[in-house]
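User: Hey, quick favor. My workstation is busy. Could you predict this chain's structure for me?
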Amino acid sequence: CSVELNFEVTEPELLEVSVLVTDALCNGDLGSAEFTVTGGTAPYAFFSNTMDPDPMYFDIWENPLVLEEYAGSYSYGFSDSNGCLAFIEVTISEPEVLLAEVIVTDPLCNGDLGSAEIIVTGGTEPYLWTNLWLFGEPVSGSLNDLSTLSAGSYSTSINDANGCLVPIAFE
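Assistant: No problem, here it is.
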């Protein structure tokens, strides 16, 4: 007597993770990593791959998964319900710190006019300037020409292309 059995062995698709990184807009701000998990067998979980022998797993409730992180390099592991693993490295960048320096040239004599030069570094060009203020009142003219300033306390703010802000004040 003999029995013939036909069967097929199947396996799930390969567990894979892709990532879309959004860098931080301003120095010190959060960026993000959007992970999409495919293949394997749902449900999925992730963990920070810090070489911890017993990492803490977090269930993935939404696919793609979005994590906010500060600038730096990160390693994540992803698992499916069968314990299959996939790993991915992520680097989130940030621009240099937005800084402004003011070089003031004081008037030589009482009643003369002075000048100022504002030097901006870091951030993301182009830079935008807000109104120039003298003792809390707006000053007419342009921040591109600070060559004829009367004595007083001035203030303004500089924004970069990403909306990062640096306030400045000078006398």
